[in-house]
Amino acid sequence: MAERIKVKVRKKKNKKRRLIKRFIVLMLLALLAVGGVGIYKIINTISAADGTYDELERGEKSKLRDDVVDIQKKPFSILFMGVEDYSTNGEHGRTDSLIVVTLDPKKKSMKMLSIPRDTRVHLA
């Protein structure tokens, strides 16, 4: 009778170990799947960002400037224009948002000015 008890205890321990091993394998597979999806999303985002960048062909400075702007020392402004082209099927889009950003590296400040799309101006 003592031998039967030992056999039952071993079977219970083996079942527990198998369940723990299966759980660990499933968790590792889930972690691998989540990691794969995350890496795919990161690569997809980076490639989309690279596809939207067009370098200017004007060299180091604009023809209208006397000196090159050193963005590490002098304040500079950037105009962001959001373009909507869904109503024209991707052709002749119009800007629907304008934001002027001024960065000052000395003061370590950034100022943003949003210009509403329907701003009325008097043209002479």
From TrEMBL:
InterPro entries: LytR/CpsA/Psr_CW_biosynth (IPR050922), LytR_CpsA_psr (IPR004474). The keyword Transmembrane applies. It comes from the Bacteria. Keywords: Membrane, Signal-anchor, Transmembrane, Transmembrane helix. PANTHER family: POLYISOPRENYL-TEICHOIC ACID--PEPTIDOGLYCAN TEICHOIC ACID TRANSFERASE TAGU, POLYISOPRENYL-TEICHOIC ACID--PEPTIDOGLYCAN TEICHOIC ACID TRANSFERASE TAGV. The gene is yvhJ. Gene3D superfamilies: 3.30.420.590. Residues 94-123 form the Cell envelope-related transcriptional attenuator domain. GO terms for biological process: cell wall organization. Belongs to the LytR/CpsA/Psr (LCP) family. Pfam families: LytR_cpsA_psr. This is Uncharacterized protein yvhJ.
